[in-house]
Amino acid sequence: MDAAKDLNYNPSHIARSLSVKRTDTLGMVITDITNPFFAQMIRGAEDCALKQEYLLITINTNEQLDRERQVLSVLRSRRVDGILLVVAPNGGDASHIRSTLDAGIPIVCIDRVPSGIALDSVSVDNVKGSQTCVRHLIERGHRRIAIITGSLSLENAKGRLQGYELALREAGIKPDPELILKGDFREATGYRLGKELLLRQERPTAVFLSNGVMTMGFLRALYETGRSCPGDIAFATFDDPQPPTIFRPQITAVAQPAYEIGAAAAELLIQRVQGKVKLAKRIAIRLEPELKIRESSAFVPREPLAQSHLIPPRGTGPHQGSERVRHSD
Amino acid sequence: MDAAKDLNYNPSHIARSLSVKRTDTLGMVITDITNPFFAQMIRGAEDCALKQEYLLITINTNEQLDRERQVLSVLRSRRVDGILLVVAPNGGDASHIRSTLDAGIPIVCIDRVPSGIALDSVSVDNVKGSQTCVRHLIERGHRRIAIITGSLSLENAKGRLQGYELALREAGIKPDPELILKGDFREATGYRLGKELLLRQERPTAVFLSNGVMTMGFLRALYETGRSCPGDIAFATFDDPQPPTIFRPQITAVAQPAYEIGAAAAELLIQRVQGKVKLAKRIAIRLEPELKIRESSAFVPREPLAQSHLIPPRGTGPHQGSERVRHSD
DNA sequence: TTGTACGCGTTATCAA
DNA sequence: TTGATAACGCGTACAA
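YS: structure for the whole thing
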């Protein structure tokens, strides 16, 4: 040991790996590291992994399917013990995922769950989250509520749309196809569809955005069209787009516990890697989102409906507390 | 080859590494991955690395020196070919860096350059950046300009303070110790010192923040004390804190080309790894920052000085173009 | 061109 | 307990 110090010796982890057939390494495939939501998720996963002596390798795919394929291949070559995966929008093609699985590398999907393939997954309860949020808008008196969806080939986008429809239906409002705009989770789309909505003759009194990135685009549209919020329109979004700043308007949002999602996913993956959980069936962990009511949903339509359960708008000050999501069951 | 496909075969990169004594892997040590500036930097480095067939492993240190030591040790064990390093605030202790270097692993420092050890580095020209920005405030008519510095044990924090002082001196303004507040690049400090400044009897007419994170804290202080910007005070910051949104006020900032910094650092590191650059002396790459003039510096003090080079405030609309930094030489 | 043996640094096995 | 030795999967050098 003394000699080791003297010689500035460091054991070779790669030689060790070759021998023991483990790398104590987890791969994390992310679509966009500059998205604060994912960045936070990485921290959760990394903290959990490091605590259990695993190294976490994070790689971006930039939402590109071919890059995802390439990355998965690299990770296989590197013999990572398991993979945390945020899938890029794929046209139902999961062959690369399947072949990685076949190579004996466990995969846990995060946030987005691809349809058509059985995978472990960790995400937020999308249905409940958007249902609670849209319900909040309805309680404010809105009835013409638009939604800009994500890519509907992803389960989470579907779930958020579903929650929107559920909330409307339970309030006796029939979903209007004119108010359901199909987006894709990208900034430019939030801008384009948002502008389209805002320039309509009969524009909705409230808009629900399916993720934080599209909300950034929507804000641009809002500003360009000269509409004010909460003066002219209300809106709310899935994802809490920014760290709470003093910027105006503060945005009502369905906040996802990003750090916890990452940590839970890493935890589950390590269980799989170590064979501590029976592989029989797939595990789906759903965490609770939290509705943060802020200024952007403070606008109340001029002709509110006289409904018995109507709730007057709460205070909209900057330091107003957040409200825990109410369960629908 | 056909058989390889058939058997779902993937060559073992670790066995290969053991043989060729290379891992084709670069380590990237970051203090905070949730900071958008670093996130962007990672993308630049990753893109560059991947393009040259290197894998990039990114790890957080949370600004903790002991974690930095541990991470460097892990990276050594993993036999990474080189390391990109954003140092945590260290009390002048660079022993772990030196021993990594001694083990034959090249290191390129990014953003922050530790004093007291000769290292390759890539960063922005801190002096010029803050000098240009403070000069801009002076041109707006400000003379009582405060600065909240970073940890002065870091070269970049020193440089930014130096640029501030240079700008004042060239305008014939004597730096006032009362207006130089020693910070540490952290949000809470921006809040605390900002509040202190804003509540002073004789408060400055403008404030220069040494980084984006502290600016977030400053905004909180601004809001809590009820001061308005650009109504009551002007401010500007090093770092462009957020992706350009429509939030108000838009912040005048010294934007650093984060992506390019990351890419340049990776490029230089790979040169070192491949021995394509003579190791004789240390290389320091300095990129040009860009001053983005926006709303937050629009406030003009009531008693502007009648100086010949005084420039009236420009338009402060949201879509105003940015202005390239003017060189001081 | 095709084949064979050895080395890379570590762990694991088996014998002493 | 200690010490020698065979794997681990791939390059590489040398022989056929």
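YS: worth flagging: Residues 2-124+258-287 of chain A form a domain with the Rossmann fold fold (CATH 3.40.50.2300).
IM: good catch. Also Chain A has two domains: 2-124+258-287, 126-255+290-325.
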